[in-house]
Every structure is written in structure tokens, then in C-alpha cells.
Design brief:
The protein is mainly beta. The protein is built from three helices and 39 strands.
């Protein structure tokens, strides 16, 4: 199979990291790449050392810097590539009998009893079983398995910076724009392509050279074997939404594109039997009454590295499994209308075997941020909740799952009308662990402070709050944020949050992708000081 796509696809595809989320532990930083490739990185063979994966246009700072070396990049004990003194350098002229046995990789050919650099592909193949000789660049003189991605096949489709074929680590390393969980690049025939405004409108659209203009036409092409939808990068917006077939394993790779239904209607509908993952997409403007950015009924959805903004509800899920991670959730359900919430997940029966996970997101300027009801389990961890609320009888986070774990979140300047309903209201079994709440109700009605009304229900351990709650591990005080005015809510020097989280309940990463703990114990709140 040829891996080279058309010039159109090569110039327009810009794709985020592969994301398969099964648990909190899978939520590594989205831009923690496996390193770039000096010879080829991605489709065009022109990348650089640190190309790696791309973060979302959504949550700011939602990741950690890419690593410096990819799988298979190590030569010598220091991982120093072609510069290694113990594995990558000559000696040229060393006495030898056999190539590859007596000669180092920088001078791999034994010729007339002395090691020298390679000169041709033929001698590399004959002497070492490697197909190529590098004749220029930092690896000149080495025998390698590949020079470009086209030399690599199967589950090792990417040629790394020392000429070794490795699995793909991000979608933008694949000509098709899709890196599978196996490390193989999806074939273009397994992908449906869409391009806002300048795609084509016929039912036979969907190939890379004939992308669909309308999302509804594109989603009709999805099947169990053609289950990837790639939105080709553009400054234009898709102005109508779409529904999905009842197919599991669908991926929507958004490349930062926006979907904004012109009439305020729902952008995406996920029906019973469907499972859809949305990656690096902007979903906005589904603002009509009872509409949502994503409406799920009986299916399963995962939203990662995305932006959901200016919707009546960003996610409206009924009898669905829901995961929202590493995303920006902004200005939804605002102004608030009855029955709306930024993320709303409910079950129709008294209890259903569904779960909701909300991990490493930023909720900013929403009306109601979360509303859960009747699920078996909910996990809300490592999120920032900033300025959410409404000047009425409003619970900003209403948690009615059978069991809710609310941990390592930071809540600042959230509000309601101080009528004893709670900013965080648990109407079920809740464990509230290692959260920061500070300066909520910044402008209370009548100027009367009501800091005792932030928390309603649930058990409290290892929290730093406006007032002290029972329990030796709970604290009160100023978290001394590094720069709250500019959005940095990391505990600063001398903060009572540092190293005071629960040592037995430690997420792998904080909201920014920094590993926890950085000190003797995790910090309280969503941000781990470094």
C-alpha cells in the first residue's frame, strides 16, 4: 500500500496526538511526544527533532513538553543518537575482520582489514542486512533500516532520527492523518475526510482528494471498518451538525477545526450503540433552548483536547458513558436557562450502570458547570472551576451519582445567591479529597460573605477551603497562587497546599500534565507546584 497522500492532504492535514482513554492512568500529557525525526517527521518528510504531538486549541497549558527521544532512538548508553562516543562514533581505520562485529556503527564496513564509513546501500545490505547508507547529515556513514517513512511498513511506519522504523506516536506522523492504537498508520481507505466550505457536496465524497463539505454527508460514510473522520485543517467553520451511525470505535480528529451550527442547533448526535471519541475540535454556538454541542442518547462519548464553548449545554448525555478530558469548557449554559449545564449526564432509570469521568479540564464562565444524576459512578479530578455560577438558586456543581470521587480540583470565584444550596452539592455518596476552594462568592448579595456555603454534602479530607471543616487533614487559608490574575493557580512558595494532599490518593498527573507528586506528597488542588 502506498503511504503518500495527495499534495492537498499533505498540505492541509494537521492532527493531534492519538488518544485512547481507558482510565485516569492513560491521561498522559497530550503533547508529550515521542520525539521528532531528523530525516522524516510526518507526511512530508520535513519535520524536526521535537515535532511530536499537537495540543488542543482548548485548555491552556494542558500538557508537558515533548520528550527528546522517541522509541528506538537510543544509540549508546546515553541515548545520544549519532553523537555517542560508545556506540555512534567511529573509529575509522580500526583493525577488523567482520563488518558489524568488529566495527562501530559510525564506521560499520570492514574493508581490507580496516573499518570505514559506508558508501552505498548495496554494501550496507550485503554486510549488515540493512537497506540504506546515509551519505549526508549527522548520520553520514551509518547503515540504517530506513531513510524516510516510505521505507517502513505495518506497525512500524515511522522512520526515526537514527534510521530505525518505529510505531507512530501521533496522527500527524501518518500520511492518512490517523495513527492507530497499535502504532500502525490507518490506510486512507479507513478514513473519511471533510473540509468546511470548500469540500464537495456529493454523496460519493470522503476521500482525501474529494473531502466532504457537509458533516452530515461525511458521517454517513462511517462504518465499522471505515471509522475515522478527519477534519482537514482550515480557517473556515462547519456550519451544520451531524448524527453518527450506531458504530463503536469512531474517532473524530478535529485538527482544531470549529463546528458552529448556524441555527443554534445540536452539533453532533451520538445514538444508542455508538461510541465516539472527539479529539482537538472546537464545538460552539449550539445555543438554542435544549440544544447541545454533543447530544448522546444511549451511546458512549469521549472528548479530549477540545474546546466546548457558547453552547446551551456543551454535553447533554442520557444513559451514556461520558469522559471529558484535557479540554476547555467555557461560557456554556450562560445565561442559564432551566435544565442546562455545561456537562450534563443523567440516567432515566433510578440507577444505571453508566460512568462519567471529568479529568484535567478548565471550566470557565459557565452557568451550571456539572450536573450528574443516577449514574453508578462519577470521577471529577484535576479540574479548574473559575467564575462559574448564576445569580439565582443555582448549584454550580450538582453531583447525584451513586458514588462520586471529587478530588484535586481548584475552585475560585464561583457563585450563586447564597441560599444554602452549595457551590459543590453532593446529593449522593461523595468523597471530597484534596480540593482548593478560595475566594468563592467574590461579590455576595448585600455584601454579606457566605464562605460556609461552598460545600454541601459528602465527606471532606485533605481540603484547603475558606473555612475549616471537621477532620485533622482539612485546612483553611490562602493558597498563595503564583499569579491568579493571569490564570496561574499553582500554589506558590509558602502555600499551605504544597505537599499536603492525600498520600494514598495520588493522580498520576496534574491538570497541566506535570507528574504527581513533585515533592514528599501531592499538592492540594489541580496544579502541582514544581
Amino acid at each position: 500500500m502506498k503511504r503518500r497522500i495527495s499534495a492537498l492532504g499533505a498540505s492541509l492535514l494537521w492532527v493531534a496526538a492519538c488518544s485512547v482513554i481507558n482510565s485516569t492512568e492513560d491521561l498522559k500529557p497530550v503533547d508529550q511526544a515521542s520525539g521528532g525525526d531528523a530525516n522524516t517527521s510526518g507526511k512530508n518528510g520535513t519535520g524536526g527533532k521535537n515535532s511530536g504531538a499537537t495540543t488542543s486549541g482548548g485548555a491552556n497549558d494542558s500538557g508537558a513538553p515533548g520528550s527528546q527521544a522517541g522509541a528506538g532512538d537510543l544509540i549508546g548508553s546515553g541515548g545520544c543518537g549519532f553523537q555517542c562516543s560508545d556506540g555512534g562514533a567511529p573509529p575509522i581505520g580500526k583493525a577488523c575482520t567482520l563488518s558489524g562485529v568488529d566495527c562501530a556503527s559510525g564506521a560499520p564496513i570492514c574493508d581490507a582489514g580496516a573499518c570505514r564509513a559506508c558508501k552505498t546501500d548495496v554494501e550496507c545490505h550485503r554486510e549488515l542486512g540493512k537497506d540504506f547508507c546515509l551519505t549526508s547529515g549527522p548520520g553520514a556513514g551509518h547503515c540504517v533500516a530506513c531513510k524516510i517513512n516510505a521505507n517502513c511498513l505495518g506497525n512500524l511506519p515511522v522512520c526515526n532520527n537514527v534510521g530505525v522504523c518505529r510505531p507512530c506516536a501521533s496522527d500527524d506522523e501518518c500520511d492518512s492523518g490517523v495513527c492507530e492504537a497499535t502504532g500502525a498508520c490507518a490506510a486512507p481507505t479507513e478514513v473519511v475526510y471533510a473540509l468546511a466550505e470548500t469540500g464537495i457536496s456529493v454523496d460519493t465524497c470522503g476521500a482525501i482528494d474529494t473531502p466532504c463539505r457537509n458533516l452530515a454527508t461525511a458521517t454517513k460514510q462511517l462504518t465499522s471498518t471505515r471509522h475515522n473522520l478527519v477534519l482537514i485543517k482550515t480557517i473556515k467553520k462547519f456550519d451544520t451538525g451531524a448524527g453518527f451511525p450506531a458504530v463503536k470505535g469512531i474517532r473524530v480528529i478535529g485538527n482544531g477545526d470549529a463546528v458552529h451550527a448556524y441555527d443554534g442547533s445540536t452539533a453532533f448526535h451520538v445514538p444508542a450503540g455508538a461510541g465516539v471519541t472527539f479529539e482537538n475540535i472546537v464545538i460552539e454556538g449550539s445555543s438554542a433552548k435544549d440544544q447541545a454541542g454533543i447530544d448522546c442518547t444511549g451511546g458512549a462519548i469521549t472528548v479530549v483536547s477540545s474546546t466546548l464553548q457558547d453552547n446551551a449545554s456543551a454535553v447533554l448525555a442520557t444513559d451514556c458513558d461520558v469522559t471529558v478530558a484535557q479540554s476547555l469548557i467555557k461560557h456554556n449554559a450562560a445565561p442559564l436557562q432551566y435544565g442546562e449545564a455545561a456537562i450534563q449526564a443523567v440516567c432515566m432509570a433510578d440507577m444505571c450502570a453508566k460512568t462519567t469521568s471529568v479529568l484535567r479540564n478548565k471550566f470557565i464562565d459557565n452557568g451550571v458547570a456539572l450536573y450528574f444524576s443516577q449514574q453508578a459512578k462519577a470521577n471529577v479530578e484535576n479540574n479548574l472551576f473559575l467564575r462559574n455560577g448564576s445569580a439565582g438558586y443555582t448549584r454550580v456543581l450538582e453531583l447525584r451519582a451513586n458514588s462520586t470521587h471529587f478530588a484535586y480540583n481548584t475552585l475560585v470565584e464561583n457563585f450563586n445567591d447564597c441560599t444554602y444550596v452549595g457551590i459543590v452539592a453532593c446529593i449522593g455518596t461523595c468523597t471530597n479529597v484534596a480540593n482548593i476552594s478560595f475566594n468563592n462568592f467574590p461579590n455576595p448579595p448585600g455584601g454579606n460573605p457566605c464562605p460556609d456555603q461552598v460545600w454541601y454534602g459528602g465527606t471532606m479530607t485533605y481540603n484547603l477551603t475558606e473555612i475549616t471543616y471537621p477532620g485533622a487533614t482539612n485546612k483553611t487559608g490562602d493558597p498563595k497562587f503564583v499569579d491568579a490574575a493571569n490564570g496561574d493557580f499553582t500554589p506558590g512558595p509558602g502555600s499551605p497546599a504544597i505537599d499536603k494532599g492525600d498520600p494514598k490518593d495520588v493522580p498520576m498527573f496534574d491538570i497541566n500534565g506535570n507528574k504527581r507528586p513533585a515533592g514528599a506528597a501531592p499538592d492540594i488542588g489541580a496544579f502541582e507546584s514544581q
